[in-house]
Amino acid sequence: MAPVLCVLAAVLIALVAVGWDPLLDVDESLARELHSFALAHPGWTKTARIFTDWVWDTWTMRALLTAAVLWMCWRAQWSAAIRLAIAGACGTAAQQGLKAAIGRDRPQWAEPVDSAHYAAMPSGHAMSAAFVCGLLLWLLRYLRVPAPLWWTAVTVAGVSVAGVSFTRIYLGVHWLTDVVVGCLLGAAIAACAGARFRVRRRTTGKTAEGVE
């Protein structure tokens, strides 16, 4: 799964880099329509900023992942804690490295409704939400939580990733392809972290951790 996601992201990055007009036209058209709506509906825009700056902010996501790592340490489940920590660090490093390497400009507006720093692609908010939510879902699966809790978490994760992706375009700080690439790469990181990891049962009946 992870290689497929990375290839799709690489294709989109390459198309943007070579300036493929059909894709760039979609980016610009959607950005302009949403920006016009944001200017005309300040109440919705304020709500979007609250969600993107607090609920789905990159620091909020990092705090959630840090809490999960500490929880696994407290439970003495070191393999899971280390895997989560490494995946989180790799995700953040990849995000910043790609931004610097690609160097894509953000949308520019005469009347901006929000601002952001660094380059546009990939979207840091979308990428962070994708890999943190993916890692937390992997953790819940690893812990074998009850089905109702699992599906609730899946719903919350899906809404969070889709929601932050939308708000970044809506607020005029990212293009559509920025958030799509961010989601693809974030999901790839989460998939890599969970690959080939399983829970083994000791003969005593206690849960142990192992890597195949």
UniProtKB/TrEMBL annotation:
The keyword Transcription regulation does not apply. Residues 81-194 form the Phosphatidic acid phosphatase type 2/haloperoxidase domain. The keyword Secreted does not apply. The chain crosses the membrane at residues 118-140, 149-173, 179-197. Pfam families: PAP2. Keywords: Membrane, Transmembrane, Transmembrane helix. This is Phosphatase PAP2 family protein. It comes from Streptomyces gossypii.
